[in-house]
């Protein structure tokens, strides 16, 4: 449970970047509708809009990398940046070794399966980014104080973390080579099944969303749109200010403190889905 809660907290680091993307792209599409609708782009306003859309899209298109680095740093002890470098190294290895071109080269039979080909076409996704972040942060937490022989002393301590993360990523890539197509197909089938259930599907979604709240991973079920992201950041700021206010007050018993914390959690979650 603590691991999942820490993961959920670490995910808020890259998520905090996304509201500015929404603002930039929103203003950009307003100034230059042709960017989304098609057509010629003329005039200074349209050029500025196109510029803003591309600026926001640069982060949205690379969201998986943000997740990898954010989780790598957020789950490392003392939020050390070495975990982020190790996570980036892991991400680069995973996405390269599991790219469609490389996979079909070492296993030509995959090219005959449209489902498997599609799965590896979509390998650069936030799920793999989170996995790379976990690999990088875990390697940092376990090997940051490693002592090597004198002739390898240069790579002792934090310098060996990215190397170990790379070795681990090679092993994980070998496993995902067989597991990822099955997992990808299962996720797609599950999403289509729930979407086709109409009201029942919405109920299942809401149930799973509520179920994941204690771990902080309920955001993973939400659509990656800018509206809920901006609202989530706003609620986090409100909840933080309330916490600081409550912290300054004297609570008679521990039970009262816990009761106040639960009340704030329920209040913020109610507002989130209002």
Low-confidence stretches: 223-274
Sequence of secondary-structure elements: HHHHHHHHHHHHH
The oligomerization state is single chain
The outline comes out as globular
Strand content: under 5%
Tell me the Rg in angstroms: 22 Å
Query: Structural class from helices and strands?
Result: mainly alpha
Mean pLDDT: 77
Tell me the helix content. over 70%
* Strand element count: 0
The major β-sheet equals: none
Contiguous helical run count: 13
Question: Please, could you describe this protein's structure?
Answer:
The C terminus is likely disordered. The longest helix has 35 residues. α2 packs across α12 and α6 crosses α9. The chain has 13 helices and no strands.
What does this entry show, briefly?
The protein has helices at residues 2-15, 18-31, 34-37, 44-60, 63-74, 81-97, 100-106, 114-121, 126-143, 161-195, 199-211, 226-248, 254-272. The protein has 274 residues and is mainly alpha-helical.
Topology:
Elements: H1 2-15, H2 18-31, H3 34-37, H4 44-60, H5 63-74, H6 81-97, H7 100-106, H8 114-121, H9 126-143, H10 161-195, H11 199-211, H12 226-248, H13 254-272
Helix pairs in contact: 1-5, 2-4, 2-12, 5-6, 5-9, 6-9, 6-10, 8-10, 9-10, 12-13
Essential attributes:
globular, 13 helices, mainly alpha, 274 residues
């Amino acid at each position: 449970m603590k691991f999942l809660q820490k993961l959920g907290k670490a995910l808020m680091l890259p998520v905090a970047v996304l509201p500015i993307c929404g603002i930039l792209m929103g203003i950009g599409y307003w100034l230059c509708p042709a960017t989304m609708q098609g057509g010629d782009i003329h005039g200074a306003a349209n050029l500025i809009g196109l510029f803003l859309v591309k600026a926001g899209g640069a982060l949205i298109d690379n969201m998986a990398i943000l997740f990898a680095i954010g989780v790598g740093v957020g789950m490392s002890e003392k939020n050390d940046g070495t975990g982020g470098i190790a996570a980036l190294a892991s991400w680069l290895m995973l996405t390269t070794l599991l790219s469609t071109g490389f996979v079909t080269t070492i296993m030509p039979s995959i090219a005959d399966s449209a489902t498997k080909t599609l799965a590896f076409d979509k390998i650069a996704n936030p799920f793999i980014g989170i996995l790379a972040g976990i690999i990088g942060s875990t390697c940092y937490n376990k090997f940051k104080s490693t002592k090597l022989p004198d002739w390898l002393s240069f790579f002792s301590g934090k310098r060996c973390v990215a190397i170990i993360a790379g070795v681990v990523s090679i092993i994980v890539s070998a496993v995902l080579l067989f597991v990822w197509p099955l997992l990808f197909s299962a996720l797609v089938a599950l999403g289509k099944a729930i979407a086709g259930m109409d009201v029942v599907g919405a109920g299942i979604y809401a149930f799973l969303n509520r179920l994941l709240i204690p771990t902080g991973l309920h955001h993973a079920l939400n659509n990656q749109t800018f509206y809920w992201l901006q609202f989530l950041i706003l609620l986090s700021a409100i909840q933080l200010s309330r916490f600081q206010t409550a912290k300054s007050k004297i609570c008679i018993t521990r039970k009262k403190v816990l009761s106040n914390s639960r009340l704030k959690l329920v209040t913020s979650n109610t507002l989130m889905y209002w």
